[in-house]
Amino acid sequence: MKAWEDLVNDDEKSLYWTENSDWYLDMGVKIEKFHEDGRIEIKNVMTHTDKFEDVEGRHLKVFKDEGWFMGCVKLNIEVHQRKLVRTNELVRISISNGNDRVVDMFKRRREDLQKKIHKYRNLLTNND
After folding, report:
1. I want to staple 84 with a disulfide (CB 3.0 to 4.6 A). Which of 17, 93, 95, 113 is the partner?
2. Which domain holds residue 81?
3. Which residue, among 113, 64, 66, has the nearest Cα to 85 in the 3D structure?
4. Per-residue confidence in pLDDT tens, the chain, 128 aa
């Protein structure tokens, strides 16, 4: 898997380990290689709970084929876009309820999410 190889060969990334595995954590993503069977798991840690989400499907393919950096950037863009959609809905609901204090809070959150999406899209563009 290209993502694991990228990290192993990057002296600037910190490797963490347990008795059972080695792992890296960066940009909201954890990648872990298990000693017993060599299995590699990638988890999205940008969740609202203590439970991490498995990275699967097309996102896993990006990590396998394009590497760690591209996988992290593309996953971050999608995660933040989903959060932006939810935040926009909360803004609409708050406006219809006339709750100005909450509207302002969600508008600030929306602006922060837009900045993050812009940052990651720039990383994607500048890496081509």
Report:
1. 113
2. 2-126
3. 113
4. 999 999 999 999 999 999 999 999 999 999 999 999 999 999 999 987 788 999 999 999 999 999 999 999 999 999 999 999 999 999 999 999 888 888 889 999 999 999 999 999 999 888 75
CB atoms inside a 10 Å sphere around CB 7: 22
For residue 54, the cross-strand partners are 43
Could you say which DSSP state residue 48 is in? S
Rounded Cα distance, 22 and 24, in Å: 7
How many structural domains comprise the chain?
1
CA atoms within 13 A of residue 12's CA, in its CB half-sphere: 2
Token pair 């969600």 is at which residue?
A: 106
CA distance 91 to 114: 14
Unique residue bearing structure tokens 């609202």: 48
Amino acid at 79: V
